[in-house]
Amino acid sequence: MLKLDNSKEYNNRFKEYYKLNYHVLESMADWVRVIDVHGKVIYANKVMKKALGDNIIGTKCNVHCIQETPCCFCIVERSIYADEVIQKEEILDGKYYSVKSSPVKDNDGNIIAAVEVFRDVSRERKLEQKLRTKNEKMSQDLDTAKRIQEKILPESGKLGNLKLDFLYRPSEMLSGDMFDIFHIDSDNIGIYISDVSGHGVTASMMTMFIRQSMRFIKDEILSPSIALSELHRRFCTLQLDIDKYFTIFYGVFNKSTYEFKYANAGHNSIPLRINDAGIEALEISGYPISLLFDNIRYKEKKVKLDINDKILLYTDGVTEVKDLEGSEFGIDNLINILKENDENILSKIEKKIFDYGKGIQEDDFALMLLEVLK
User: Fold this and answer.
1) Which of 14, 100, 248, 362 has the most CB atoms within 10 Å of its CB?
2) Angle CA(264)–CA(186)–CA(210) in degrees, nearest 5?
3) 3-class SS at 217?
4) Residue-wise pLDDT tens for the chain (374 aa)?
5) What DSSP assignment string belongs to 302-321?
6) 224-236 and 200-217 helices cross at what angle (nearest 10)?
């Protein structure tokens, strides 16, 4: 600590310090004390005296702060030596305090002491701890939900005379994209891809509804268009907010005739048929599954597929990836990739869109690649 040669002169100089307004300090709810250059307490306001005792005056600064030894980092000493306002946090008798030390100067600008203010921030720290605990629990719950969502996706490989490969990339921990492939009966296989508005927990819960509903509907209804109407009816019974909706493309493939019937509920990412003849968009219009519409009837188309034909189903997170100038990747870039490559189509699409967007993914995206086998 700094030392003064003449303690009497020191006391006089301290008294000169702007005639310190003790009334202001006495009215403060925070603890306030003044510590001289020798590390002794020369003043403490009444709330600090009430908490620690009147005999705090004249003692070393660490004695009445529930500490047996001086602080490892003494902000009073640093404040006096460096002429700085220093702040730190301490735990005293189980309570959290934000402690700020400021230099005190006489009329000549010489540092003669430091004023230290203790603010009890225990309530804030306890709330922060509760928040951290809740966040950790939420993070664990989200991780569990993510693993469940990924687990219910179909497996890559053969299903009847269709071969499936896919990519699934949520923009957050949980995704609003969902797809599935399943046996309907001995002759037919159902395939759909859907895209829920928004991201995160609400969107992911909606994908669970879609999957569960489609698994029930497939056993009752074979027609894709009627199946989507039934899906819309079931969605309306949820009575969600008007801004909750989703799109879905649903097709039924006949393993014997190779006929593919399909309907579309607002899914603007039009599936693409790929073969030696070129690339064909399986276009068909239809409203999204939403509370805005009542008793929707969907159109239905059919196409005869050939062996080795491929069908690419995807969500708009693929085509709406933006570059640094804000231009979207678009359907044309996707088609160009399909024209250039026969193998590893999905991995090449993924690389292209990540390169295009410089690694920034703002939306979920999913791709399904179906290949017709013998």
Assistant:
1) 248
2) 35
3) helix
4) 444 445 555 555 555 544 455 667 787 889 999 988 888 998 888 888 888 888 888 888 776 555 555 566 788 888 888 899 999 988 888 888 999 999 988 888 899 999 999 999 989 988 988 998 888 888 888 888 888 888 889 999 999 999 999 999 988 878 889 999 999 999 999 999 999 998 788 888 899 999 999 999 999 999 999 999 999 999 999 988 888 999 999 999 999 999 999 999 999 999 999 999 999 999 999 999 999 888 899 999 999 999 999 999 999 999 999 998 999 999 999 999 998 867 889 999 999 999 998 888 888 899 999 999 98
5) EEE--TT-EEEEE-HHHHT-
6) 130
Helix (H) or strand (E) holding 202: helix 200-217
Whether 234 contacts 210, CB under 8 Å: no
